[in-house]
Design a protein that fits this description.
Elements: H1 2-28, H2 42-45
């Protein structure tokens, strides 16, 4: 039984680290807006 508790504790710690890093990314990283232009060849438009 102690190995089960150790495994669950390890899973909880890893989940906390992942959740904390995702929360930090959401709160502190701002995306940069920029314009995007995509050229479509005329062969694909006129079939």
């Amino acid at each position: 039984m102690p190995s089960l508790f150790r495994f669950l504790f390890l899973c909880a710690v890893l989940f906390g680290i992942v959740y904390g890093s995702m929360f930090a990314l959401v709160m502190y990283v701002q995306p940069v807006d920029r314009e995007l232009t995509v050229r479509v060849p005329t062969e694909k438009l006129n079939r």
